[in-house]
Amino acid sequence: MSALAPSLQAWFTDRLSNQLHASPNTVAAYKDSWRLLLGYLQRRSGKQPSQLDVADLDPATISAFLDHLEAERHNCVRTRNARLAAIRSFFRFASLRHPEHAGMIAQVLAIPTKRTDHPEVSYLNTEEIAALVDAPDPQTWTGRRDRALIDLAVQTGLRVSELTGLRNSDIDLGAGAHVRCRGKGRRARCTPLTKQTVAVLRTWSREHQAGPDEPLFPSQRGGHLSRGGVAERVAKHAVTAAKTCPSIAAKKPTPHVLRHACAMELLRSGVDVATIALWLGHQSLDTTMRSYLHSDMSIKEKALARTAPPHTRPGRYHPPDRLLAFLHDL
């Protein structure tokens, strides 16, 4: 018998935290996945989670749990695959601690991820961006904070976790103004700021006088805003913005839609894909190309404009008569 609890605890405390230095977001996602799995096993087997054995997590049980996520919890395929990634990560660790279960572990690791559709990204155009940035009420403290947050999000394309984690010391509003953050995969990056964003942040910094390690965009209680809190504020201001820009209502803006808006503004301005990938903190160029090049219809329209209609003769048109030539050139 190989108890599950000691191995699972060692995976979280030793492997994830000490060896891999996993980010808090990764640890939280893996924790949620295992809480769901252990709760499912408890209902199915009647055993308490602390009494479970590694052998209780056989491939058939894991597959049934994944089906349960989609059928009963109505999770999307992406969420199902994310839960499977957390399970796989533990089983790779367990393969070293429990060689007696090597065959079963290999079968669990062989469970495939589900293929899913890749819908076109939703993003805001220039007019919609301006309407959303102007939506917060400048007469209130939260309105001024939200305006600075949305302006920074649209201009830099920071992820919502990067925005909520910003401290006052992470922005430099002097010459070569920029913002520093540590993003996905613990990759640090520095993003330049436009004059407009610098002006907004300077106004906010003068009002929000706090220590260098304090949150740049605090909640009303003084702590960091949550990701859900930012999403709620963006949705609230989108309703206000829709009064002057009705098209924004159909796009249902989220913090990630603001990130997409930043990328599309850069792409329409002629910035190359490699630079956009660095700007957004993408690890692979494929992510940038798949997400944004396919969504920009203007690029495809320009390509179409360079092609000739079918069944046309090559070359330029030359009028057959001098009078027609005069009329053509008039």
Please characterize this protein's 3D structure:
The protein has 330 residues and is mostly helical. It folds into two domains: 4-109; 126-303, hpI Integrase, Chain A, CATH 1.10.443.10. It is 56% helix and 4% strand. The chain is built from 15 helices and three strands. It has helices at 4-19, 24-45, 59-71, 77-97, 102-109, 126-134, 141-156, 160-164, 195-207, 227-241, 255-268, 273-280, 285-293, 297-305, 322-329, and strands at residues 171-172, 178-182, 188-192. The protein has a three-stranded antiparallel beta sheet, with no helix packed on it. A hairpin with a 5-residue loop joins strand 2 and strand 3 (188-192). Helix 1 packs across helix 4 (77-97), helix 7 runs antiparallel to helix 9 (195-207) and helix 12 packs across helix 13. The termini are far apart. 27% of the residues are buried.
Q: Which helices and strands occur, and which strands form pairs?
A:
Layout: H1 4-19, H2 24-45, H3 59-71, H4 77-97, H5 102-109, H6 126-134, H7 141-156, H8 160-164, E1 171-172, E2 178-182, E3 188-192, H9 195-207, H10 227-241, H11 255-268, H12 273-280, H13 285-293, H14 297-305, H15 322-329
Antiparallel strand pairs: 1-2, 2-3
Report the average pLDDT across residues.
87
Counting structural domains, the number is: 2
Instruction: Bin the strand percentage.
Output: under 5%
Quickly give the CATH architecture of the largest domain: Orthogonal Bundle
C-alpha Rg (nearest Å): 26 Å
Quaternary status of these chains? single chain
Bulk shape: globular
Specify the structural class. Answer: mainly alpha
Number of strands: 3
Helices and strands, in N-to-C order?
HHHHHHHHEEEHHHHHHH
Strand arrangement, major sheet: 1-2-3
Question: Which segments are poorly predicted (pLDDT under 50) over 5 or more consecutive residues?
Answer: none
Count of helical stretches: 15
CATH fold field value of the largest domain: hpI Integrase, Chain A
Distance between the termini: 93 Å
* Helix proportion: 55-70%
